[in-house]
């Protein structure tokens, strides 16, 4: 069995703000069948501690970044979860990264440095007689772990993989905190963890980890370009040889449609329209959006392009939260237009009902490392209309003339990410929707798309194996 400690700031079913949590929660189960013993280490936020069924302490620290801390052990499905209980860092109201007012916690660098440092200690010394061979570090919150591991002198025998789920979040901190973060000053330079005179936890991971990965092959190559690399493209180009893109899968125990046949889907559409107060007799497709409302997701563009859908009898149901300006704009739209329903907030059950009831899911992202909602859409026969970028490019087969002629299309892609291109794509969507035979064919294709973890888990397992071999004397 390859032993891997997966280190992350979120994990379904305990704490989630985005796709990272889904992936971290799904990997241990998906990898178990490949002979990987993956255990997960997450912070003990108040919400997480409250959900733990058991609280067995398996490690203790007198002073971890300013207070006492323990590692608690709990089950995660059939696997093992370690929770870093550090009340001075994590026992608070608010979210994992922000206070109740929506401001980043000022001590975020220390909070996640603590997580990374405990991961490194587990790497160096093991925990409960369990000695991981690999630290799999997810995003900036785990970015310092490879560096701390080096400092502990264990990087020669324990391997590290840094996975980028979104390069927009880089874990920046003022250089004045180098001492407080326990970082070696010798690493504060351009080829180390320094980034524009500050400290970047993500860059530390990208520089010091043995291997790098991201969550789709297209994003892996996009990241090496100026347009997508967000200042780290040069670092990534230098490490091109060590970088792979492995697509996320979906957790089919959580995301399986409540219907077996396409015909049954109509009932879910009717129920969703009723629930959201959308007229039942409009002819067009019911499009859904389930998304964080941020610049990345391109929903400002959707707002501009919306008449192309609504004027042709289409409807929009949006579930999301985030940018207050966007929340307000969509709520205003819903008040004015009977074809638009908007729910602001985070609602896992409604997300499932929308996926079941929608005809199409819209994902007009400016960039999208992998994206999960288009994959849920495929699984549910809710055809994805997506921007041609990142994982959206890798998972959807465009209904281009060639895609249609070959009979393999599963959705629609548009490029560039502009209101005009999206409006045109929505018109194409409506035309396809009116052609019942083609639409049904596409739904059948979509539902048969390989979106489970099967393929990707095998790729991770092979990568881990090669990493373990590389460390063998
Ligand atoms: P990202 O991680 O960038 O937010 P992904 O598409 O990878 O985007 O993952 C988003 C995840 O969060 C999906 O599981 C999606 O269903 C869920 N999600 C996003 N917004 C909401 C919301 N308002 N309510 C419920 N689930 C949401």
Could you give a quick summary of the protein structure above?
Residues 3-238 form the Starch synthase catalytic domain. This protein is α/β, with parallel strands linked by helices.
Compile the SSE list and pairings.
Layout: E1 2-7, H1 19-32, E2 36-43, H2 46-51, E3 56-61, E4 69-76, E5 79-85, H3 87-90, H4 108-125, E6 134-138, H5 145-151, E7 159-164, E8 172-173, E9 194-195, E10 198-200, H6 201-208, E11 211-214, H7 217-222, H8 226-229, H9 233-238, E12 243-245, H10 265-276, E13 286-293, H11 299-310, E14 315-322, H12 324-336, E15 340-344, H13 348-357, E16 360-363, H14 373-380, E17 383-387, H15 390-395, H16 401-405, E18 412-414, H17 419-434, H18 436-447, H19 454-471
Parallel strand pairs: 1-2, 1-6, 2-5, 6-7, 7-11, 11-12, 13-14, 13-16, 14-15, 16-17, 17-18
Antiparallel strand pairs: 3-4, 4-5, 8-10, 9-10
Helix pairs in contact: 4-5, 10-13, 11-17, 14-18
The chain binds adenosine-5'-diphosphate (ADP).
- The CA-CA distance between the termini, in Å, is 18 Å
Report strand order across the widest sheet.
3-4-5-2-1-6-7-11-12
What's the main sheet like? 9 strands, mixed
Specify Rg, calculated over alpha carbons.
23 Å
């Amino acid at each position: 069995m390859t032993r891997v400690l997966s280190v992350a700031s979120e994990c379904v079913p305990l704490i989630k703000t985005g796709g990272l949590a889904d992936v971290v929660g799904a990997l241990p189960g998906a990898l178990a069948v490949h002979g990987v013993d993956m255990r997960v280490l997450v912070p003990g936020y108040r919400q997480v501690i409250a959900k733990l069924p058991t609280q067995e302490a398996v490690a203790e620290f007198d002073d971890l970044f300013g207070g006492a801390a323990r590692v608690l052990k709990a089950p995660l499905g059939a696997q093992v979860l370690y929770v870093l209980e550090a009340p001075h860092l994590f026992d608070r109201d608010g979210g994992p990264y922000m206070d109740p007012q929506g401001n980043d916690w000022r001590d975020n660098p220390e909070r996640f440095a603590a997580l990374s440092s405990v991961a490194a200690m587990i790497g160096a010394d093991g925990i409960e007689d369990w000695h991981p061979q690999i630290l799999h570090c997810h995003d900036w919150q785990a970015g310092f772990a490879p560096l701390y591991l080096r400092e502990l002198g264990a990087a020669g025998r324990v391997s590290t993989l840094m996975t980028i789920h979104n390069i927009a979040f880089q874990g920046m901190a003022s250089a004045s905190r180098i001492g407080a973060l326990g970082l070696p000053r010798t690493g504060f330079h351009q080829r180390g963890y320094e980034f524009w005179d500050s400290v970047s936890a993500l860059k530390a991971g990208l520089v010091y980890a043995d291997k790098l990965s991201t969550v789709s092959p297209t994003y892996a190559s996009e990241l090496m370009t100026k347009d997508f690399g967000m200042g780290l493209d040069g670092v990534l180009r230098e490490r091109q040889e060590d970088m792979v893109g492995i697509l996320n899968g979906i957790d089919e125990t959580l995301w399986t449609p409540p219907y077996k046949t396409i015909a049954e889907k109509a009932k879910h559409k009717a129920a969703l329209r009723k629930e959201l107060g959308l007229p039942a007799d409009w002819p067009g497709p019911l499009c859904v959006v389930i998304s964080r409302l941020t610049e990345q997701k391109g929903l400002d563009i959707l707002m501009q392009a919306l008449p192309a859908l609504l004027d042709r009898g289409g409807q929009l149901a949006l579930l999301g939260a985030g940018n207050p300006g966007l929340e307000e704009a969509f709520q205003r739209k819903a008040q004015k237009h009977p074809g638009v329903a908007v729910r602001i907030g985070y609602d896992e059950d409604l997300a499932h009902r929308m996926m079941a009831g929608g005809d199409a899911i819209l994902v007009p992202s400016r960039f999208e490392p992998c994206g999960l909602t288009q994959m849920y859409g495929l699984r549910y026969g809710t055809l994805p209309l997506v921007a041609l970028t990142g994982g959206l490019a890798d998972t959807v087969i465009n209904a281009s003339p060639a895609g249609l002629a070959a009979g393999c299309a599963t959705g629609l892609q548009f490029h560039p990410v502009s209101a005009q291109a999206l409006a045109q794509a929505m018109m194409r969507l409506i035309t396809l929707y009116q052609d019942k035979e083609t639409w049904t064919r596409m739904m059948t294709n979509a539902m048969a798309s390989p979106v489970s973890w099967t393929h990707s888990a095998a790729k991770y397992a092979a990568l881990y194996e090669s990493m373990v071999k590389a460390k063998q004397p």
